[in-house]
Amino acid sequence: MSKYQLLAEIEKCRKEMVALSDTHELTSKEIISQSEQLDKLINDYQQFAQ
Fold it and tell me: Are 17 and 35 in contact (CB under 8 A)?
């Protein structure tokens, strides 16, 4: 996956998490799972920067 594809995936995941927060508690399994997925994508992106 390229750096730009990762950025697009990060933005998509972030938007999905924000949308989920409209209907779920911030401590719900769904939000936590989405947050973990976003964290992984961000970590992958940071690997490109090194």
Answer: yes
CA atoms of 17 and 12, how far apart (whole Å): 9
Handedness of CA 50, 48, 9, 29 (dihedral sign): negative
Task: Provide the pLDDT for residue 1.
Answer: 81
CB atoms within 10 A of CB 41: 20
CB 14, CB 38: distance < 8 Å: yes
- Round to whole Å and give the CA distance between 7 and 15: 12
Query: pTM of the entire structure?
Result: 0.89
Per-residue pLDDT for 32 more than 90?
yes
